[in-house]
Structure formats: structure tokens, C-alpha cells
Amino acid sequence: MVMLSVPVPDLEDRALDAELYAFVTSLDPDRVANRDVPAVLAAVSRLHARLGAFKLGWINEVTRRAPNGPPDGVDRLREPHRFGPDEVRVTLAWSRQRAERDSSVAHEVITLLPDVYAAWSEGRMDEAKARICHTYLANLTAPERAAVWAAVAPRVAGWNSGQLAARLRKLTLGGCPERVEERYARAVEARRAVWFLSPDGTACLALDGVAPGDAAAAKKRITALARRLRRAGAPGTLDQLRADITLALLDGTLDGLTSEQILTHFRPATNGGRLDLSPTVRSDITPSGPAPRDPITPAVTQPSAAEPHAPEPDAPEPDAAGSDAAGSDAAGSDAAGSEATGPGGAGSRLGTDVVLELGTLIGTNQRPGELPDLHGAIPGHVARAEALNQQRGRWVVAVCDHEGYLLCCATLRARPDGALDRYRGGTVELRLTVTQLEYWLHDPPRGFEKLIAEIAARYRAWPQQVAGLNEQPDRRFPGSALRRWVEVRDQTCLGPGGCGRPARQSDKDHTQDVQHGGKTTDINLSPQCDHDHLLKTEGGWTLEQPEPGVLIWRSPLGQTYRTRGDPLIDPPPELDPDPPF
């Protein structure tokens, strides 16, 4: 039975006051129309955020009251009292640890981050976002906090917490190079392995403070092994197999085995919830492993004596078969199975996929790079070291317009002087604007002459090559060049709400399905994770792509969302030194 709905006025700009509270609490959900339900939820969320901010304010008030002040007086301290959190914990029946943590957050948000507190109090962000801002901003200098907040404030209401954290991480890592490198070195120095029991009776183990490139390489190898095991018929999900392999590598079960021997000796029989990993023959295996390395940044001390070797720029790449999810999760596919000897062979670390600006590689700036496998930004000096140790990896360039959006994407043969053949495989993606290219072409930095000259040549030839991206519109799956273009252009899944899954790990979805006449072209393809892909095919959402890389989603309740990948090159915060162009 469909009941008549009550009218719901525009709530978006209503003041967060008692009148709004009384209105939303008086609504009968049975009488609210489908189209109005999201608006009511948004209003309730804004009210909840305001009350959460007020609660934090009162926590700070309790901790600042003088313990020996008159009961009927108002006697505040400049700073929270040492035992002020104990008043909070007995009042709210909290643990001491929670009371101390939230009391500290309350004081620092209110005193150090007043703009964040104001946005929270006004309902423009919720508690989760406010705490993320505290995590990234509280330890910065006052000018740094102001510059970073100014960069995120206009969009904070529309970002989810993951998007906000990613942007804050990138901006804070792009701050003062000396402080960034100092914090990084301290964290690596404090690296540790931790183990603890989970509430369900299982256990968790983790590594903290390790170099991000090493972590990404470990993920890449373990994922490649797990994928090969699945293809060989091993039971379990990819996550389950990765967990089993990781534990077996650590607990000694697989000591001394090469990747191929690990695959051979895996037996797909379950044993208490874990695969039986015990090998059948081990006596002829001699343990070996990589020589110890500097855990902070690999040294890059000398130029390469030989001309770098790289794949032909226009050589075809293997296309995916049977799925739109081309190139998912383990770039380099079965890199774990390679046991070559010599530089970049056995005993050397796997290469990673690393993204950085050409200016960071050259050293004219210290802007953060990215490790797509780990879904986030890394310090610029770490990204530079990762790139320069992957001479034989695949190098590509993304030339962008003045707003940071993609104009040209091409594979490179040239390498800078000083690149070393230290890691196996991997992909280095360099980014720069046309303005930067023109500047460096006129005055190339020493050691980068060949690289910059080739980038310029690729950019000049791009108008002829770009036409070939859409030359096979009737094929079911995109070719390697089109797939790479979409992945670099969009960077992540373009589903509503800011999914964040890397584009290369997502389906290359046809906006208009092939069975309905959709073509395999750049204006009809976009990255979609499995879930967001299903929104369109099974969830009742509709999707349009009015221009390449710009999506318009419409929900079953009539909400409209516009998504587009972020610029490949962000404008730097105001505190960044002016670039030389």
C-alpha cells in the first residue's frame, strides 16, 4: 500500500537549531517520499556532527577546570589539567585510554585547528573527517596548517573520509622537505613487527614503519603467487591465499624454496582452515636471500655504464581475455615466478609501480610520489629512489595541461643518468605539464637530456597516435593502448562516493553496454570496481559519460552525482617554493 507523503521543505541550508531538530525528529518515515529520504538523512547527519563537536568542546571544558576551584565558580586553566581526563572517564564510563586520547584530541582541535572545529560544528564535516584532519594537521607549523586547510576546505564536505585522508597525506608529504625526510627516517628507525589476538580467537600480525617500496614489492610477489595458485586449482579466495602464503614464508615452512618450488609444493588440501603448505622434498634446497639493504632509501651513487634497455615504446602489450578487469591487482602478472640471476635477478627485490612528477625525479622539487599498489602517497625522496632503481622496468610519461589533466601518454626508452638495474620489473610513471616540458626542453638538467628529448618527441607525435586509440570500437575488450590511456586518465574507480580503487585493478566498464550498442572507445570506457559496476547492471543506477572521463550517475532515489578523476598533477600548496618556469 502506498501512503500519501508529507511535504519536506528544502533542508540543505536550514540552520542547525532546535527548530530543525524538532522537525526531523517529528517525521514519520512511513510518510516521507522516496525522493526526500536522502535530504532528511543529510540533515540528521549535520545535526549529529554539530552535537559531536559540542561534545568534544565540553570534554575540553571538563579537562581545563581547575581541580581546586570553587564548585559554584568558573575557574579555567590555560591547559588541560593532568588528571582532567579522569573526570571525563568517570562521567562517561570510558576507559582511561579513551578518555586521555579524546581529551587530547579535543584540546588540539579547538586550540590548533579552529577552522576544522568550526566546519565540524557547522555540520560541514563529521567526526571521522575531523579526526582525520587532526591526525594530519596537528603536528604541522601554523603556516603549514593554514595552507593545507585552505587547499582542502572547499571540498571537504563532498569527500568521503578516505578521499580526505589521501589528499591530506599528499599535501603534508609535500611540505618542508627536511621535516618530511626527518619524520620518515624516524618512522623507519622505529619499524617493528606486531602480533596480537583478535576478538574472534584468531591472530593478527603486521609490519609497521617499513619502507613503502619494500611493502609494495612484498604485496606484488605474494599476490602473484596467490593468483598462480588459484589458477592451479587451490581453494580459497585471493585474500585467503595471500594470508596463507605470507604466514608460510614467515614461519619457516617455505624456507629456501624458490617461487616455482613454492608453487610445486603447495598442496590444495585444507588443514584447519589453512592450506597444507608442507613441501614433500626439501633436502636439496639451500637457503638464500637478498643482501641487507638500507631500509630508508636505496643508494643511487653512480651512473649506468651501459645504454638503458627498455621495451620498444610501441610494442604491443598482452591484452586481457575474458574480463574487463584487465591488468588487475598484480602488475607484472607472474613476476613471482621469475628467478633470473644477475643484476635485477635472483636475490633482488621485485620492482614496484611508482608514480612521480618529473620535477621530483630531477630534484627541482620534493613533491610526493605514489605507490598505486598501496593506494597512497609516499615522500618525494622515496619515490625518486624507487624510480632510479628500476632501470629495466617499464617507463611511461603522462604530459598534462595546465590544470593537470592528461594530454599525452606514451612509453619511453630513454633513462636518466644514474638509473640502476637493481629491481626486477616494475613501472615508472612520470608526470609533467606542457609548460614544464617547454622549460626543460630549452634548458635540460644534466643527465636528463635524452629523457626530456624523447618525452618531447612523443608529445609532438601524439596527435597522430591518439587517433589509433579508438580504431577498433567493435572489439569486446580495449586494446593495451586504450586500456592504458583510460587507467592513466582516470586513476581510480569512478563510481559515486569516491571508491578509490586503482584504475588498473578495476573493470574497464562500458558506460553504454556492448549488448546495447556501446562502443569500445575512450568516451564509453571508465574504471569501475566490482561493486560500482554492479550498481549500473543490477542496482538500478543509470550512468552517462557526456565527455571522456566525466561520469554522471543517477541513483534509484533520484540523486545525481558527477565523478571525474583528480588532476594528475595537483596545484601545490601556497607554501611550495615557486617552480623555475
UniProtKB/TrEMBL annotation:
Q: Where is this region: Disordered?
A: 269-350, 496-527, 562-581
Q: Low complexity composition bias: which ranges? A: 318-340
Annotated Basic and acidic residues bias: 504-513
Q: What CDD domains does the database record attribute to this sequence?
A: HNHc
Annotated protein name in UniProt: DUF222 domain-containing protein
What is the taxonomic lineage of the source species? Bacteria, Bacillati, Actinomycetota, Actinomycetes, Pseudonocardiales
Q: Name the source organism.
A: Pseudonocardia eucalypti
**InterPro entries hit by this protein:** HNH_nuc
Q: Which domain of life is it from?
A: Bacteria
